[in-house]
Specification:
Blueprint lengths: L27 H4 L4 H14 L14 H10 L10 H25 L4 H16 L5 H5 L5 H10 L10 E2 L9 E5 L3 H9 L6 E7 L2 E6 L2 E6 H6 L3 E6 L5 H12 L8 H18 L4 H8 L17 H11 L12 H9 L4 E6 L16
Parallel strand pairs: 1-7
Antiparallel strand pairs: 2-3, 2-6, 3-4, 4-5, 6-7
Helix pairs in contact: 2-12, 3-4, 3-11, 4-5, 4-8, 4-11, 5-7, 10-13, 11-12
Length: 365
């Protein structure tokens, strides 16, 4: 089945006056904004143009633990995986952000109160034990009330109407987006206003390279899909075989690098502070915050460690292709590049009917 191609637009993912936020979605929440996401997005871009690289919202007290913990420990060794506690700290920062979003959801969206309350109770329980039982936080299974909220009020899946493609239809350089049946994956979906929580780079011969808790590593597509309960494919239009190989070589050059826990914790702290500051605008303002790519201080990004979207963005940049001018790119931002036509939406990949959660950081974005 041919991939979905749209007329290309002048689109720069963040901090550019040409940015557009009026993205297609089936979400009732998006429709609630009387001003529309385009207006809200323009205001957000203006706000960020006036900020220094040391974003003040990073110091929000509700999110300091994950950042301070990562800084105190220092970068993980490139030869080893991030610790379970590091993963739990980052998971907790997502839980705190999700809690703030759910609080506002129940306030502004009739019919969401009961499910939001149940999800928030679970989040509170896990947050309280994050230091004593980190494995329980990292491996928490999917929350049915939260899934109900995401399905009913949350972001739509732009791949839902596309057919399932065979893995043999994949091309080197394709970007595979997926989510897992775990609570943290759900909170990442909510925090990034997207039904996907992770991206990987297809390198050919049934293999992918991605950044997870164990760091940057190459593994089989089968393994990636075995952890997933949803997976879809994006493609850079017009990518030549030579360009694809350059992208792959750039990603493989970082094999074994550690995961960027510090940068991810800072990203979530920044999002949390922005959600709180835009809450008075209603859900439209909050969704505008969640669906924007961010800019972080370079010291948090150019430090030899990688989050999944960061690895994909850098690999393409090294090959001379700029996917985004925002260095705080998240999986949802990659999905939106397909929604506005910067990337082509190729189709969905079949996943096992019963995917299993992982305690190895497989959910990390």
């Amino acid at each position: 089945m041919p991939c979905r191609q749209r007329k290309k637009k002048a689109y720069f993912p963040s901090f550019d006056p040409m940015e557009r936020r009026d993205l297609p979605t089936a979400s009732p929440l998006t429709a609630m904004s009387s001003r529309g996401l385009h207006a809200i997005g323009s205001e957000i871009v203006g706000d960020h143009h006036g900020q220094s690289s040391g974003h003040p919202s990073i110091a929000h007290p509700g999110s300091l633990h994950g950042i301070a913990g990562a800084r105190a420990r220092g970068p993980a060794s490139p030869a080893g995986a991030g610790t379970l506690q590091e993963q739990a700290d980052v998971a907790t920062s997502f839980l705190r952000l999700a809690d703030s979003i759910l609080e506002n959801l129940s306030k502004f969206q009739p019919g969401s109160e009961a499910d939001a309350s149940q999800a928030r109770q679970l989040i509170a329980q896990l947050t309280s034990i994050s230091q004593t039982q980190p494995s329980a936080v990292v491996s928490a299974p999917q929350s049915d009330p939260l899934e109900s909220l995401l399905s009913t009020f949350g972001p739509g899946d732009p791949f839902a109407s596309l057919g399932v493609i065979s893995p043999s239809a994949l091309k080197p350089g394709d970007i595979i987006a997926r989510c897992t049946p775990g609570l943290v994956s759900q909170t990442i979906e909510l925090a990034g206003w997207s039904r996907y929580s992770h991206v990987a780079l297809y390198i050919g011969h049934g293999m992918v390279i991605d950044a997870v808790g164990a760091g940057v590593h190459t593994r089989s597509l089968t393994e990636l899909l075995s952890e997933s309960n949803r997976a879809s494919v994006l493609r850079v239009p017009g990518l030549t075989a030579a360009q694809a190989q350059a992208v792959i070589h750039a990603a493989e050059a970082h094999e074994g690098a550690a995961y960027n826990f510090t940068g991810l914790a800072a990203l979530e702290a920044q999002k949390l502070a922005a959600v709180i500051s835009h809450a008075n605008e209603g859900l439209g303002g909050i969704i505008g915050v969640l669906s924007r790519a961010e800019r972080l201080p370079s010291r948090l990004i150019d430090n030899g460690t990688f989050a999944c979207s960061q690895l994909v963005r850098l690999a393409y940049m090294k090959a001379g292709i700029t996917l985004s001018h925002a260095n705080g790119l998240a999986p949802g931002d990659v999905i939106r590049l397909g929604m506005v036509g910067v990337l082509d939406e190729v189709g969905r990949l079949a996943v096992p009917s019963q995917a299993t959660s992982s305690t190895t950081g497989a959910w990390l974005p």
